[in-house]
Here is the input.
Amino acid sequence: MTSGVGVPTGQYKVIGARPVRHDGIPKVTGEARYGSDVYLPGMLYGKVLRSPHPHAVIKSIDTSRAEARPDVRAVATAQDLVTSGGVGKEVALGVTQTDNILASRKVLYKGHPVAAVAAASPHVAEEALSLIDVQYEPLPAVTNVEDAMKPDAPWLHESWAADEADAPNVAGRERHTYGDPDAGFESADVVVEREFRTQTVHQGYIEPQNATAWWEPGGRLTIWCSSQGHFGIRGNTARALGLPESQVKVVPMEIGGGFGGKLNVYLEPIAAALSRKSGRPVKMWMTRAEVLEATGPAAGGYVRVKMGATREGRITAAQAHYAYEAGAYPGAPLAAAAAAVFAPYDIANVRIDGLDVVDNKPKTSAYRAPGATVAVFAVESVVDELAERLEIDPVELRLLNAAREGTRRADGVMNVRIGAEEVMEAVREHPHYAAPLDAPQDGKLRGRGVAMGFCRNNSGMACVVANVLDDGKVSLVEGSVDVGGSRTAVSQQFAEVLGLSVEDVIPQVADTDTIGYTSNTGGSGVAYKSGWAAHDAANDVKRQLIERAALLWETSPEDVEYVDGALRHRSDPELSMTFTEIAALLPETGGPVVGRANINPGGMHGSYSANIVDVEIDPETGKVDILRFTAFQDAGKAIHPSYVEGQIQGGSAQGIGWALNEEYFMSDDGRLLNASFLDYRMPTSYDVPMIETVVVEAPSALHPFGVRGVGEANIVPPPAAIANAIHNAASVRMNRLPMSPAAVLAAMS
Here is the structure.
């Protein structure tokens, strides 16, 4: 189910429709080509030797026996990359630390790459790994933020030890204060302060990381891979190999899921180094265990939230302290957490303190609204407790304190038009919220919970080139990797401007040599930035076609208008041409028409989301079953409602997994114990009910079509909504994720 709030229906012809996606047939027939589908003449296969220790000094690496094997064509170590010689606390956005690609001095997590081999077959390459002799000096390991910050904790990066201002392994802070939080708490009639702890979780994409590299005889490097941003892959690979970016070409393949986890480079520089040494193309891919052990999961951490409110329900002050694990290298999502932590609410007095903490796990990466899910789990649990103690309906309490246009977000951003209030009102008015809970059977317990969510969303540079073809169709070339149907959503925005059918637009994602720089597919930014670029490219086409029509009609362009896919003379109605008709005349009016747009729009306004969740708990086992789930989200304007609904449902399903099942089980000595999908418990169709979606539309004031990002805010509210439903059912407050049967049973007992 989809309902719209805020935008009149029928104002667009293509936007808001549900056309079949352009890449649908190739994907369902198996014709679509993914990274592992690349095969080149004379291709070799690469495998990576990984550390068995979570923390150790590399004393020596002897590759001579592997190199001596006749069917081994190349061996690579950190010496084949450009290393920095140390790890600083500063985090460069989008930059992968070279030591995370191949360790040079220390290994910092089990699975840390140490060396790689290329051979004529993957089996030979894997066997040859055992011929590489690595001498380690094992060190103590820490695998959570609280242990990592203890005074006696081992330092992952010894150069930081000279800085005694922070606890061990703290790379950075994010602080925000405004108003007078102390005075705000003093004026509150009710104050709730709680601690929360969450575990590392993985994005769980189906397709493992992969890369094929060919260092051609002329010295140019081409890489085929599945990523969320081939320009970012190009930049990081060039930097790791000491090359100018112009020497590297990256060809984007289809992507089998990413959710933020395919932004960094892992295999690409290694495959390139092996190709340079062997003179042959080299193909590599990860096993599932390698994906879980050695790619970027989402940060776990510790959160403490304190909030105060008057008897009437007005929140007077809020305070959040959180420590997020960055994994082996700095870069936990502190700023994104600060943006989200109190974003749904208008609070006059706020204090935020976030810590970026390294520990002996793989370097964390983005995962759908990075930083937000953990922080909001804590805040929305406390808001629910405030409502209970004040005896105020939980949605009414949220509406009373809703952030609106003109209010200030906790991280300092002044809100313009946002959809927080509209989402809360949609929750309050939805039949699910008022529906009675059916009586449980067999002694089970039932409850209902609500929670809000938020993602600040991102933008970035984008390029679109539109080539008008002589049969009236348009080849639309863009630079954004398509992870969720964005080719069609971008094409719809192009077609809307020109009054075309979206089926007449032929979209493709081009390689780094073919299209202008486009920032990563992340932050829910593609429909926004590349859609905006398509809008501008379409207007560029329109302008040129008006000039061509004016030339044919021997008049000025001011006398020609473009309406509903056709050109018309303003004062002579007999003079008109359709888009297809004038496309056929381009050769005789000046040649090809190519529309283009190169833009860098400012950051868009965030998206708000919410859930209503009904649960049933078995008090004998602690198992939580979800009976009904309704997900709400502000899309600004739903370009393709089916894709918006799919994003909401997908994010909600992942949020349910984060809430109830998923976590990294770490041994005492720092090893991941559930490095397979048999043991890493992602939800299945048995765990997730039909997810009802409600699309709220509060248009962004920035975008030509009012678009907001829709890919991330949906993952944020499920853990808190489920926790609040558990409390409603069993009168216990859950302060840890996941809320597994054992955790729920322990809380109830």
Remarks:
- The first strand starts at residue 44 and ends at 50.
- DSSP finds 20 helices and 26 strands in the chain.
- Confidence is low (pLDDT under 50) at residues 1-9.
- The first helix runs from residue 24 to 29.
